[in-house]
Amino acid sequence: MASLFPPSFDTLIDQFAALPGIGRKSAQRLAFHVLSMPDAQAEAFAEAILDARRRVHACPVCQNLTDGEKCAICSSDRRDASLVCVVAEPRDVASVERSREYNGVFHVLHGVLSPVNRVGPDDIRIRELVARVSEGNIREVIMATNPDTEGDATAMYIARLLKPFGVKVTRLAYGIPVGSNLEFADDATMLRALDGRREI
């Protein structure tokens, strides 16, 4: 069946539909919205995407996203740099920070081990974590990957790698429901999970 829309509009819909969590109907709504924007607003939107692509990069210390030399957390002298919370994705940093109880620093893996999806240890930022721990300034590593099969496997793999360094490795307590994602945890659940972390 022939498309009801011009090819350039179909391409815009396709681009929105390729985003995670955006279905075809939502993509269509977003495309119509973009077309209805004044030129200046549409240009600012496009420029914001390009600017973020140009400027945002991984922090050389924790691998979180930053547009500076180091991220704000690694640059802060108020954070306990001897306590490292390991998360799978940059968005998980915000979930832990919402508890307002955690005062350490982070390490972002940018994924989890997943044999099914062919994601191995060299595909995520494990090597950088081991290098940080090997420097000897870290007393505890909190594994805060999601409480699912892949998150647990990643936590156990990293715990084994860090064992020779004599660092304490803990896992978030299961205040977070198994099979869910950190980004959907409410503040109280995140606080309980941090308080009840255990050594692995």
User: What integer is the average pLDDT?
Assistant: 90
| CATH topology-level name of the largest domain | Dna Topoisomerase Vi A Subunit, Chain: A, domain 2
Domain tally: 2
In spatial order, strands of the major sheet run: 4-3-5-6-7
- The assigned structural class equals alpha/beta
Q: Could you give a short account of the major beta sheet?
A: 5 strands, mixed
Helix content: 40-55%
Give me the CATH architecture of the largest domain, please.
3-Layer(aba) Sandwich
Element string (H = helix, E = strand) = HHHEEHEHEHEHEHE
Shape: elongated
Q: What is the CATH domain class of the largest domain?
A: Alpha Beta
What percent of residues are in strands? 5-15%
Query: How many β-strand stretches?
Result: 7
Q: Total helix count?
A: 8
Question: What is the gyration radius calculated from CA atoms?
Answer: 20 Å
| Uncertain regions spanning at least 5 consecutive residues | none
Terminal CA distance reads 57 Å
Question: What is this structure's SSE topology?
Answer:
Layout: H1 7-17, H2 24-36, H3 39-55, E1 57-58, E2 65-66, H4 72-75, E3 80-87, H5 90-97, E4 104-108, H6 126-134, E5 140-143, H7 149-162, E6 168-171, H8 187-195, E7 198-199
Parallel strand pairs: 3-4, 3-5, 5-6
Antiparallel strand pairs: 1-2, 6-7
Give a verbal description of the structure:
This protein is α/β, with parallel strands linked by helices. It is built from eight helices and seven strands; from the N terminus they run αααββαβαβαβαβαβ. A five-stranded mixed beta sheet has the order 4-3-5-6-7. The mean pLDDT is 90. α1 (7-17) packs across α2 (24-36).
